[in-house]
Design brief:
single chain; 540 residues; alpha/beta; Oligo-1,6-glucosidase, domain 2; Immunoglobulin-like; eight-stranded parallel sheet; six-stranded antiparallel sheet; 17 helices; 19 strands; 26% helix; binds alpha-D-glucopyranose; binds calcium ion
Length: 540
């Protein structure tokens, strides 16, 4: 809107996702709070060196889905703070020249939200049509075969009024009816509220689910061969989700959000929205930018999260996105978030470094997930410790493992909360050795690697804005690419393998960083990559 591609803050920023419940508890109730985020801002801005924070939900919530079931979109959960704490946090973030984007939940409310409490009182309620209601079939069965993404029917019978309401996720999250103009106005007003408070933008939650087929048609069966993971999803994966999400009318809603967000943008403060869109067909995915780039500034690109960790597959994701991006659109990459297993558990410690080098050297905005910078691993739980509703339904998909308290130091609870306090999820016991303090003292730690890389990116226009091109001819098990501007040619070379490989470069160069943190200086045209090593090289 104001500058050439790559120059707006959200295009060159590195975003860091804070899951506030698990970041820092400051009043010893075992739940992380906004004051805790405030206390850790120096870590984020100076020690680590990220540019923007995505704050996961902090709104009042009965915690059926830990903050994603909301009873008041314009308030702060008293356990996490107050609107004053929020304002203080935002102004401290801005004082550090950082940006803040917040989670904007648009698809559903809590079943305790006053709107829903009112809606379920009677079929004549003024708020009835704010949600999706439908009468049972003659047999009493739900209106159609749509399923909740967390398992079971998406329809819940409301005994008082004898109709079903629809919930894409838990039954405590009734979906809003976005076809009702009052809903639309009320929800846009929520965005206005936070924009007026000064946030720099939004991560629009479950954006893809916002509108469904108005005729409530049954989803057809999914006859394609299914992967073991998909099979574990059970019933949900037995259907093609043609009608229960992603209705094309949602594009009109995103245009409305975009107009609103743009109307609050100034040259000094361009605002921005990234949407949670789980689509892996690039042609479909790019539609969320809008035909005239007038919808989401970016749909999240989850291609690397689910990708088999092989060089050809990873290369395919990068080239797929590069090719699909319409002129003027800006891409992005993600390796993990609060819904996915931990990066270091998925790939192992060595490949987690390689993945971080990849994430922070590709063309497109990177989002880091809290704790991945110290290689936090999945937490392990006894059945009675499971908190996540999805995990309770299907332990295979439990998301608690990626939500354990941030590991700050070796003190009890990893410094997340005081000794003797029970954290809402127990800290991973490896906090005793894997923590920020210990890794700061170790020059070759994952944390120091990530810090160093973040500084390289922050000071490099080539990494932030330069063109991407695959370097052909990389040896088996390797993937390499160029990042270039008129004056500079960088190469990123990644060895996915446990064996040494030799990569021919077009010229010698200077090693700017290695994942092993033990080399610099010149390299000849033959770059020797050790097992699991990745390097960033300035040619010439
Ligand atoms: C989004 C959130 C996820 C939540 C779901 C339903 O996908 O990322 O954490 O469980 O919405 O509320
Ligand atoms: Ca607290």
């Amino acid at each position: 809107m104001f500058d050439a591609p790559g120059q707006l803050w959200w295009q060159h920023a590195v975003i860091y996702q804070v899951y506030p419940r698990s970041f820092q508890d400051t009043n010893n109730d075992g739940i992380g709070d906004l004051n805790g985020v405030l206390q850790r801002l120096d870590y984020l801005s100076e020690t680590l060196g990220v540019d923007a924070i995505w704050l996961s939900p902090f709104y009042p919530s009965p915690d059926a889905d830990f903050g994603y079931d909301i009873t008041d979109f314009k308030a702060v959960d008293p356990r996490l703070g107050t609107l004053e704490t929020f304002d203080a946090l935002l102004s401290e973030i801005h004082a550090r020249r950082m940006k803040l984007i917040i989670d904007l939940i648009v698809t559903y409310t809590s079943d305790q939200h006053p709107w829903f409490v009112e809606a379920r009182r009677s079929r004549q309620s003024a708020k009835r049509d704010w949600y999706m209601w439908a009468s049972p079939k003659q047999s009493g069965a739900p209106p159609n075969n749509w399923q909740s993404a967390f398992g079971g029917s998406g329809w819940e019978l409301d005994a008082t009024t004898g109709q079903y309401y629809y919930h894409s996720f838990t039954k405590h999250q009734p979906d809003l009816n976005w076809r009702n103009p009052e809903v639309r106005e009320a929800m846009l007003d929520v965005a206005r509220f936070w924009l007026a408070r000064g946030v720099d933008g939004f991560r629009i939650d479950a954006a893809h689910w916002i509108l469904k087929d108005p005729d409530l048609r049954d989803n057809p069966p999914n006859t394609a061969p299914r992967s073991p993971v998909a099979r574990a999803l059970g019933e949900y994966d037995s259907q093609l989700h043609l009608y229960d999400k992603g209705h094309s009318d949602c594009h009109e809603v995103f245009r409305a959000y975009r107009q609103l967000i743009d109307s609050y943008s100034t040259a000094d403060q361009p605002r921005f929205a990234v949407g949670e869109i789980h689509i892996f067909d690039w042609q479909e995915w790019v539609k969320f930018y809008g035909e005239r780039l007038d919808e989401l500034h970016m749909p999240y690109n989850f291609g690397l999260v689910g990708a088999a960790w092989q060089p050809e597959v990873v290369r395919g994701v990068v080239e797929g996105m590069e090719r699909a991006l319409p002129a003027g659109a800006w891409g992005n990459y993600v390796l993990g978030n609060h819904d996915e297993p931990r990066l270091a558990s998925r790939l192992g410690a060595e490949q987690a470094r390689l993945a971080t080098l990849l994430l922070l050297t590709l063309r497109g905005t990177p989002t880091l997930y809290y704790g991945d910078e110290i290689g936090m691993l999945n937490g392990e739980f006894t059945p009675d410790q499971i908190r996540d509703p999805w995990g309770k339904n299907n332990p295979l998909f439990g998301r608690d493992p990626a939500r354990t308290p941030m590991q700050w130091d070796a003190s009890p609870n990893g410094g997340f909360c005081a000794e003797g306090v029970a954290a809402w999820l127990p800290a991973n016991p490896d906090y005793a050795t894997r923590n920020v303090e210990a890794q700061l003292a170790d020059p070759r730690s994952m944390l120091n690697f990530t810090r160093h890389l973040l500084r390289l990116r922050q000071n490099s226009r080539t990494l932030q804005q330069g063109a991407y091109r695959t370097l052909e001819g990389a040896p088996q098990g390797c993937y390499a690419y160029y990042r270039t501007t008129a004056g500079e040619r960088l190469v990123v070379a990644l060895n996915f393998n446990g064996r040494e490989q030799v990569l021919p470069l077009p010229s010698g160069g200077r090693v700017l960083i290695s994942t092993h943190m033990d080399r610099g200086g010149r390299t000849e045209r033959e770059l020797r990559l050790r097992a699991h090593e990745g390097c960033l090289i300035a040619l010439g």
